[in-house]
Amino acid sequence: MPRLKITKANMAGIIKPVSKQVDYYDTELAGFGVRATKDVLTFFVRSTLRGTTQKPFIPIGTYGTFTPDQARIKAKEYLRRLDNGENPHPKAQPKHETITIQDLYRQYISGKKTPLGDSTVYAYNSWMNNHFSDWLQLPANSITGSMVLDRMALMEKNNGMTQAACSIKLLRGLYRIGIALHPGVITHNPVEAVREVRGREWAPRKRRMTYIEPADLPAWFKAVNDYHLPKGKDYLLLLLYTGLRKMEMATLKWSDIDFKTKAFTFTPEKKRGEKPEDDRVTMPLSVQAYRLLLQRKAQGWENDYVFPGKHPSPHLSNADNYKRDIIKTSGVKFCLHDLRRTFITIAESLDIPHYALKALLNHSMGNDVTGGYIIMSSERLREPMQRIADKIMGLATAKPPVEDQAQRAA
Predict the structure, then answer these.
(1) How many CA atoms, within 13 angstroms, populate the side-chain half-sphere of residue 90?
(2) CA angle, 153 then 157 then 160, to 5°
């Protein structure tokens, strides 16, 4: 076991063996040495691990990558750790679990105590794939606050303030569950940077109060009736005539329509704080909705759904193209949920009883004790449903005032 003081000058005198290896130990620092092979000189530490009889060989690095002085500093650190009972060998280090953004998202979706609704999952999937697709395979701890701020600014520019805020809030939720489930692996929530930079109320959300006003309804109604896509036309009109949510209508099956009793049964969306009492709800069909469905059925259908979708979805999954086309043609801006708000706004104007309104929208009675005693059958709702449809038709086919006609002619 040759010994020498490991310095730059002495390293030049070490002869590399033709075969095997030769270890040279430092004359000043016990346990520090350099291993010579035919190709390289490698600095190392070899000393007893406290509490054991083991004397592990721990490489520091090759001569050229490390100078003797740099290797000596590293050797002192390794020897100190060995003396503390810690093995600094790279292979002896605990393996750190890597959690990606995709992993957090899967755990977020599957870990909910109350399963998320189909429409919610669809929205979340869209936000993740559209806004964070390049982050999905990255380790969660690699995302920084500045990255989140930059991505949020990009979304606000391209997708609007509301979608940007919703997407960032979803990301914040992923990190919160990650910190709870993987302490020590997920160590920070980068979305907190948004609050620090933009303030506490960085994403105030106001309840949307838009609907199609009576003055705009004729132009909207004409554009829909003239629409060249029958499926889009029927879908939009039925949303207005029934007040259903977009996915409640999209998932309606022909087996849900009872043409004999002129009623339909659907599965309501489950909302937080507004859960329906029953899994299936039956509602009457107005004459307008009944005729529309009858005509649609006579045209034949592709599958079990009233509004079939494109592969792989068996039912309609995205009606944004219908909305965009009608906005362009009519000049009336609206979102699909505006049709539900239009339905109930017209219903309220007819002085329909409060509990009938709640039943028509399938809103939970909540803690309303009186409402809990009321049994609202579908036949009880037939008369108000028809009154609403008739009022919609009256407003939609109304001619503009004479002065408006004169202005348009001019």
Answers:
(1) 4
(2) 100
Length of the chain: 410
Burial status of residue 199 (CB atoms within 10 A of its CB: 0-12, 13-18, 19 or more): exposed
Order of strands across the sheet that contains 281-284: 257-258, 263-266, 281-284
Amino acid at 160: G
Buried b (16+ CB within 10 A) or exposed e, 328-337: ebbebebebe
* Contacting residues for 275 by C-beta, under 8 A, at least 6 apart: 364
Q: Between 161-181 and 145-159, two packed helices, what is the crossing angle to 10 degrees?
A: 150
258 DSSP β-pair partners: 263
Block residue for tokens 């990650």: 178
Strands 22-26, 32-36: pairing kind: antiparallel
Q: Which of 49, 47, 50, 25 is nearest to 35 (CA)?
A: 25
| Burial category of 207 from C-beta neighbours within 10 Å (exposed 0-12, middle 13-18, buried 19 and up) | exposed
Q: Domains in the chain, start-ordered, CATH in brackets? A: 3-88 (3.30.160.390), 101-198 (1.10.150.130), 217-409 (1.10.443.10)
Q: Which helix or strand (DSSP H or E) is residue 45 part of?
A: strand 41-46
CA separation (Å) from 124 to 18, 106, 159? 64, 11, 15
Q: What share of the chain is helix, strand, coil (3-state, %, to 5)?
A: 50, 10, 40
Closest C-alpha among 173, 137, 133 to residue 151: 133
pLDDT band of 271, cuts 50, 70, 90: low
pLDDT tens-place string over residues 285-337: 999 999 999 999 998 877 899 999 887 889 998 898 999 999 999 999 999 99
